[in-house]
Amino acid sequence: MKVDWLIVGAGFTGATLAERIANELDQKVLVVEGRNHIGGNAYDCYDEQGVLIHKYGSHTFHTNSKLVWDYLSRFTQWRPYFHEVRAYVDGIKIPLPFNLNALSALFSPQYAQKLESLLIRQYGYGAKIPILKLRESAHEELGFLAEFIYQKVFHRYTIKQWDLKPEELDPSVSARVPVYVSRDNRFFQDAYQGIPLHGFTAMFHRMLDHSNIKVLLNTDYQEIADEFRYKRMIYTGPIDSFFGYKHGRLPYRSLRFHFETHQKAWYQEVGTVNYPNEYDFTRILEQKHLTGQVVPHTTISFVYPQPYSPGENEPYYPIPRKENSQRYSLYKQEAEQIRDQVLFAGRLADYQYYNMDQAVARALTLFKQIVSE
Ligand code: FAD
Ligand code: UDP
């Protein structure tokens, strides 16, 4: 078989590039996917009890990019959905990001009011303050609040999730969940938010439904790279594995999901409840909140962070730290030298903590470069 492009990986990055190349350039694409399904980590499916689950952890789509939203909207309608997260702190479920409602839930009305006034005076209503920044506050009471939030919400959760303290990671990691001077309990404030109406996998099927695209599942690209002739490759897997780990391993973090079905309509009040301080798991997910599926029972999943071992579990997260970016840049230099034959993109190949919209934006930008070459 002869194709123009071999694309490794059928996640957001691979599917977007396959779709663009097939539709816009009218070129033939073979997508090779190691798993037995398309969709990458955003894959959803029905479990044995008929509940629509997100196999690799809850995925909530959110973006401020009209370009990305309009692009994906060609392949799906959307179920409007605003994600809410609670964190279990001192026996109380408080909203995350930690906001003014969390203050009211945890402190006496007078003290909550005092802290609220201080936050508004110092940062302004609507401000989002990364916890590591708030910790730098010289103000005595804001310093107390920062330490309280750091200890009760961030410290142990981050150790569970990464086996590192918040300050041992790039500050952008804990800044994903800033302290929010607001009464808005939504986890994201992006302009566009939703869940594909018929699920993520259905959306991926539509993206890849083109006579120029063939998809080969259950196949590592190395098994077939010699059997197929192609002009160029796009690789969306782990970049260190592509180069045979010649500059050493890039660390990734993995997860284990434990699913349980309960014979009741709902298990918890929102889609995600985090447990920063208790248990070995970090959070409990209930995807019915996201999907809007109407069934009398519900499936939840417990998320247990794990070290990543190639071949044994999945590389879910790059670990954003200076020494890892330095090692990644060695691989990036290698990648640049073979750019004519192979292009690298995606959360694993770019070694970047991309959200779904960022993966799509990255793929659309790469496509533009391909066209302009
Ligand atoms: P992936 O989805 O990882 O796809 C890469 C694909 O390549 C995989 O299917 C893999 O099997 C395949 N592959 C790798 N190597 C090979 C090989 N050698 N041969 C063949 N195939 C190979 N983003 C959000 O915006 N909102 C969320 O709520 C959200 N929740 C998340 C929750 C979790 C637990 C995780 C891990 C991520 C979450 N994300 C979320 C991020 C989102 O999953 C990523 O941005 C997105 O999946 C990136 O797409 P990708 O195509 O780059 O990578
Ligand atoms: N975090 C935390 N406690 C929480 C939620 C998040 O310490 O209750 C920190 C933790 O380091 C986590 C990071 O903030 O890895 C980003 O959280 P997010 O919910 O964005 O993680 P993801 O959904 O990507 O796993």
TrEMBL record:
UDP-galactopyranose mutase C-terminal domain span: 152-353
Keyword set, alphabetical order: FAD, Flavoprotein, Isomerase
E.C. no: 5.4.99.9
Record Pfam families: GLF, NAD_binding_8
Molecular-function GO terms, alphabetical: flavin adenine dinucleotide binding; UDP-galactopyranose mutase activity
Names of the cofactor(s): FAD
Top-rank taxon, per record: Bacteria
InterPro entries hit by this protein: UDP-GALP_mutase (IPR004379), UDP-GalPyranose_mutase_C (IPR015899)
Enzyme category, top tier: isomerase
A single Gene Ontology CC term: cytosol
NCBIfam families to which the protein is assigned, alphabetical: UDP-GALP_mutase (TIGR00031)
Xref: PANTHER family: UDP-GALACTOPYRANOSE MUTASE (PTHR21197:SF0)
Similarity annotation: Belongs to the UDP-galactopyranose/dTDP-fucopyranose mutase family.
Protein name: UDP-galactopyranose mutase
